[in-house]
Each structure stands twice: as structure tokens, then as C-alpha cells.
Amino acid sequence: MTAKRLLVPLLAGAALTAAVPVATAAPSAVRLEVPAPTGPFRVGTTDLHLVDHARPDPWVPGATRELMVTVRYPATRTAGDAAPFMPPAVAAAVAASDARALRIDPAELDYGFATHSVPDAPAVPGHRPVVLYSPGRGNPRALGTGLTEQLASQGYVVVAIDHTHEPLAVQFPDGRVAPRSIPPLTVDVTKKMMATRVRDARFVLDQLEVLARGGNPDAARRPLPAGLGRSLDLSRVGAFGHSAGGFTTGEAMLADPRIDAGANLDGSMAHSQSTGEFGRVAEEGLDRPFLLMSAGDHSAASDLSWQRFLANHRAWVRQLHLPDAEHSSFTDHQSLVPLLAAHLGLDQAVTAPIVGTVDPARSTAAQRAYLTAFFDQHLRHRPRHLLDGPSDRYPEVRFLG
User: Fold this and answer.
1) What pTM did the predictor assign?
2) Do the beta carbons of residue 272 and residue 264 sit within 8 Å?
3) pLDDT tier at 101 (50, 70, 90 boundaries)?
4) 253: closest CA among 300, 192, 177, 315?
5) CATH 3.40.50.720 fits 2-399, yes or no
6) Whole-number Å distance between alpha carbons of 39 and 380
7) Which DSSP state fits 126?
């Protein structure tokens, strides 16, 4: 169970590989989409290519550490075509992998569908809290699109990070593609992965400071959306992530006092549960607010690293649980897998191990509501009663503490 929470695969993971029957050919690819954001602001987006010239890449000898990040933000107007869910090389790599697991033609899987974010739209004037997003191990940053768009529509600047050489592919603006290069997982590799992720997050914050001062941190100095740098309020910074990204959030908060509040979406905080090798954040806790969200059979009751974290934590904390959801419910798979299942005729035995049996629209709405309430309360200092106890509006969510 721990490996599942820390080392979540893409849709082409073991849960599908073992169970999926051969699907009959469909007449055309399913029309995939993530739910539209519901906040008062329209959403703009821009990608930044960031190069850490002082750091060698830990996974590729002789290379310099390069990152791609997507910045989503409140936009004044959003004329023009929306950004694609994934760039072409990433979409093709993920579709090919997923198609092998699903035993279908890759043409059935179109991951280049339009999001609800318009590239380079002017930013809404005003200072906005900043939130970092770290995906699960093996996942591209795109799989957090639904949640990051929602937060941007609620008035946050949200920065999603690709941890290069963990996902199947990371595509750079010049067309280069960095493939997955991380070695097979051991405890030592996992520790190195987490240390790399923390350094990635801290470097991204450094580059956002450059942007806020009026500089352009993009490696090619590509033009930036009007007003974006001025909109960053780096005195109010949050972070959240799914699976290994949730672990990353806690470890980054421990290493960097600039992060004021964090949320872990179903991620273990252990390098190895079986040997009791927990992360520093579990062993030391934090002195800033933290939200734990879990699904299915995962919670502090079953995760020793969460138990250790809660025993050592010294600030506001909540544990929220979606019993009918599953690990990948905290990604865009919550919306995409049911669409694929309906199109391909897959039964619940295939989809339940991935996204549970929860109604996908209800799960998505609940996650958006609680995550927004958490950052509103701890970055904007606006108390949110939704965090005080169970709500009739979201009966899918259980309060565990």
C-alpha cells in the first residue's frame, strides 16, 4: 500500500495492466476533458523553462538540471485558443503507454485536448498568493490541471512543476524531450528522488522571486504575460502535491521557511514503511498548517509515516478522507478514467482500483472546495467553516481529525 501511495504510476500502471480485457475498436477517440474551473476569474497560463546552472542533473551524467513549469493565474481576458492538456511529445508518450496497458490503439487516447487556460493572457492587477504543485512520482505536471485551474480561478497564482526524468517525457520549448531516466527504485534512489524534488521546488521559488522583481527567469527570455510578475505575492506561499508530491510538499516546507502552508494528497511520508525509514517531515513535524487528504484504505490508521508526522506536528492540521475514492482520484484521472471507461466499455473492476467508486463530479467538487478553503484560511487569513467539521454539502468526505 505504501509503494502505491509514494510511487504512483501513470494510468498505464500495474492496476490496469493485470486486469484490463482487450477492448474492441471504437470509431473515434473519446472526447476527453477536465471539469471547468468554477471561480470568479478566468485563467491564463504560461510555461517557463528554468535552468539551474549551479546544479548537475542527478539522473543524467553531464547534464545541467532543467525544469519545465506551468504557471496559471487570474487573467483579465482570455481571447484565443486554450492551452492543450499535454504538449505533443508528452501526450504521445503517455497515450502509447496507456494504450499498451488498455490493449487499445493509441489513437483512441487524445491527450492534446483543450484545457480551460489561455496562453499568455494578461494577469489581473493585484497581488496574489502563490501555490506550488508537485505531481506524483512518474506523473507529468499536467495531471494536476483540474485542481491548479480551479485555484487560479479563485485568485491564486499556481505553479506546477515537472521533476525532469521522472515522468515518461518532459518537452522543452525547443522541441527536445527528456525521457524517464530515474533508476529502478530502492530506498537510496527514493531518498535521492525526494532530495532532488525539494531542490527543484526551492529553485522554482528562487526563480519566482526573480520574476516578482521584474526579471525574466525563462531560459530563452521568452515574452511573459503582461502583469504576471507584479501579481506574485511571495510573502504568502503555499504548496501541495499528490502522492510523492505530497511527501515533497512536507519535505520542502521543512527545508524552506518561505512556504507557509501545505497539503498532502494521499502521499506516504516514508522512504520505506517496512523498515521504518521515514522522511524528515515525519520525524520532525512542522510548525505551519498542513492538510492531509486520503482515499480508500489509506489514512493515518494504516500509514505509519502519517502517524509519526501527526505525533510530531506542532501546528494546525486536518485529516480528510474520501473512503469511496482511490489514490488517483486526486489527479485528473478522476475525471478522465470514467470517460475512458464509458467509451471503451470497461467495467468497474478495472476502474475502481484507480479512482474508486465515488461519483467523479462529487469527488472533484469536494477536493476543490477543501483545498481552496485550506489556502484561503492559511494564506489569505480568511476563516473557512468548511474546515471545522463534516459538511452536508460534501458527505463524501469524512473528518478523521
Assistant:
1) 0.94
2) no
3) low
4) 315
5) no
6) 16
7) S
